[in-house]
Specification:
The chain is an all-beta fold and about 150 residues long. The chain has strands spanning about 1-10, 15-25, 50-60, 65-75, 85-95, 100-110, 120-130, 135-145. It has a domain at about 25-55 and about 70-145. Strands 1-2-3-4-5-6-7-8 form an 8-stranded antiparallel sheet, with no helix packed on it.
């Protein structure tokens, strides 16, 4: 990863703009220990959109709503690479129960999804839950990923 974060405190309750190469927004499991929810490395990274190069904005509107949106060159493609495809993302998070629950939905790879190097369409939904005043918590994540016009032979 190589990126710059710019913070704008007066947009909503704060906006972070990230520019560079970063781990894709919706993943709950990442290579670096501080980002790694379960301290393991997911097998889904063999086909999941792991890194993107581009720009993203995360805006916290209030104690309940957070939005994210951005543009990249696609999955695992630098913006200047011949495999790059202009790819959008849009995510929405809602938090309730005194921050004990959060639902997060994300369209992470919005493009034509036609077969190409790592040109995935990727949609995620995650539910986070903290059990009372304990340190116990859990995260449940689901994915829908596909490519169209893939060769069959």
């Amino acid at each position: 990863m190589a990126y710059v974060d710019l913070y704008f405190p007066h947009v909503g309750q704060g906006m972070d703009v990230r520019v560079g190469r970063y781990i894709s927004l919706p993943d709950i499991e990442a290579q670096l220990a501080p980002n790694n929810y379960t301290y393991t490395h997911s097998l889904t990274y063999t086909y999941d959109c792991y890194t993107q190069t581009g720009i993203n904005a995360t805006i916290k509107w209030n104690n309940h709503w957070t939005t994210q949106f951005g543009l990249s060159g696609g999955c695992e493609s630098a913006l200047w690479a011949p495999t790059a495809k202009l790819t959008g993302n849009a995510c929405l998070g809602y938090t309730w129960s005194a921050a004990g629950d959060n639902v997060y939905v994300c369209a992470n790879s919005i493009n034509d999804s036609k077969y190409s190097y790592n040109n995935l369409a990727a949609y995620y939904a995650t539910w986070y839950h903290k059990f009372g005043d304990t340190k116990w918590h859990m995260a449940w994540e689901s994915w829908c990923q596909y490519e169209s016009h893939t060769p069959t032979s």
